[in-house]
Each structure stands twice: as C-alpha cells, then as structure tokens.
Amino acid sequence: MSRVKQQSQASPPVLPSNDDKDSVWKAYHDRKPLRVPVILATNPRVYTLDEQYNDTGLSFEQSFSDPRSMLLSQLKWQELARSVYHRYCDYPAGLPDRWTVGIDFQNVYEAWFFGSPVEFRADQVPDAKPWLAEDNKRAVFDVDIDRPFERDPFRRGIEFTERMMEIAENTTYLDRPVSVNPYLPGTDGAVTIAVALRGGDFLSDLILDPGYADELMDFITQAAVKRINAAHRYWGRKLSAVGYADDAVQMLSHEMYLEKILPHHGRFYDALDPERTLPRSIHLCGNVQRHLPAIAARLGVRSIDTGFPVDFGGLRKSLGPDVEILGGVEVATLLNGSPRQVLERARQILQSGVMDGGRFILREANNLPPKVPTANLEAMYRASLQFGRYD
Fold first, then answer.
1. Furthest-apart CA pair in the chain: how many Å?
2. Which is the most buried residue in 97, 121, 203, 218, by most CB within 10 A?
C-alpha cells in the first residue's frame, strides 16, 4: 500500500510537537488550561473525494460493498490525516505505532436501515433518498427494530468488522500493525432521520399529522436505543458515554422543539443513562443556538458540538462556564477564504468570551470538507497559539 501524496511547501511550519499537544490536552482535562485546544474532524471523504490524494481510485460505493476496500479507505484516510491535517491541530501527527480503523457508512446508515435507497454520485458523499410518501408512510413500522443485525447496513457492519479483523491479523500498513474497532453505530437523531425518510413532508406532519410524527420519532428513537444496546452486548462492551445528534432541529421554532422534540431527545438519553452518571454530549449543526440552553439544563448535556451560525460569546453567557463548547471557523471560510480571513475569524471567536471557564475547543464548523487549503488550517491553528492562551 503506497503513501498518499503530500502538498508541497517550501519549508514546513514550526508548530507544536506531539509532546506539546499532550501537555495542552492534559491541562485542559485537568481544568487548568494552557490554551484552547484545536481539533479537525475528518473522515474518509477528505481522501476519497480529493484527486490530489486519492491514488487508488477508491470510491464510496466500493468501500460500502467490500471489506478490503473499506479497510484500505480507512487506512488511506488515517495516513492522510496524520501526515497532513494533524499538523494543524492538537491531534498527534506522524505515523502511529499501530493503526486503528473501523467501519464508516457516512450519514446514510440509519435511513438505509429503515429502507431508504442509498445513492452514489460522482464527487459527492453517499445520500439516502426519502421513500415514505403519503400513501405508504406507515410502511416503515414493518421494519424489525428488535433484530438490527439481521438487516443492512448493520448486518453488513458486523460482517465487515469481523472480516477486517481477520485481514488485519496478517496485515501491516507502512510497516505498522493494524487493529479494527468493534462496530458501534450511533444515531443521527429522531427529526433528522424522519426527514431523511419522509423528506420535507415530515415538517408538514408535525402540524397536520402530529400523531404520526410523534409515532415515527418514537420508533426511530426506540430503534437507536435497541441498536446501541445490542451492539455493545455483541462486542462485550460497556457504554461509557452518551452522544446524540439531530441537525434537522435547526428548521424548527424553539416552541415546537420544546413541545414536540425535546421529550424524544430526553427519552434517548434516559434510556441509555437512567441514573444520569455518564457524560452526555450532543452535536447540532446549523442555527440552533436558541435550543441549546434548554438542552443543557433539561437533558444534562455537558458538551455541545456546534456548527454555524453561532454567537459564541452569547452562547457562553447562556450556558455558563462549565459546559464544554466546540466550534469555530465556518467551513465555507476555511474552504474559500484567505489565511488572513481565517485568522481574523478565529480571533473574533476566541476573544468573544467563549473561553471563559476554560471549556472551549476550537474546530472547523463543522466537519472538514475535502480540498481545504492547508494555509487556512495553519491560520486557524496559529490563532489558537496567539489568541487562545490562558494567562
């Protein structure tokens, strides 16, 4: 397996070492932060959809269909992340002692399970097509959510994992051994999956057929809880934290969120963490700031991963100093802006008041697309080094 190509530079930037990064994370977790940590969330799309790096011709359709292709795409992505992207954040850069990979079915896995056809388009991530029209919208309730691993993609996820584990036993990549993580799928949220299945009609359901809308969200929530518990039992793992996401709530008023959606979110958290002893987190893209104080207060969420737009100073004031906030420069600016624009936007965020309490992590908002100039990533990282220090 060959190495990915790296972007050429006249001279590499002088940036923190892995030891420096370890010190930053230790101080952050000890609640004695030195500076704001920086992360970059990438996934195999930064390799698969960037011809500069994709030297194998791998596609999502191949990796979704074949465990060897899935393994190769994971390794290629991680090599790219550690050799390029991790130079510009506080994840360790350079080749690891051991590669650790997993299964990635992007954001279509849940709708796929409920019957949505998966579409593969050139130069795009996979997409799930809505299939519940008005005349068949109850057909989804025929899906057996009590046996998730008898139906794709979760059946495929288990099969791929076990096959990849077999391959990894006799495989090295760049002279380093390979481990495969157990397949432990999560959820993308009740509203988001309902919209994926029904399209925009689900937003009308909330008003015109609220009983059906509530039943569908409850079904999606039950399925997620059953699946997460079943996966942990299958692999002999114990749940150590509860994470959630539901990006589609950005389309709803706060009143509707509180009345119709928050109870489903609460049932998800409480089903998996009835004693409220586990760390609770949530990821919400989009314009959701109006929902976040209630989510923190009522659901016990202590870590919130944001997208955009966000008023970071206002969000810190509304949440208080103890809730962890993740967020940062919008991906459109990272992709299309200049390094000066990126640095200035990161400076604005860091000096907004969001650092109060030492519970802020700077990142792209949200999920790094392919082809972001490394000069822009360096600019965001340097903003943390310059403006993100706690003195």
1. 62
2. 203
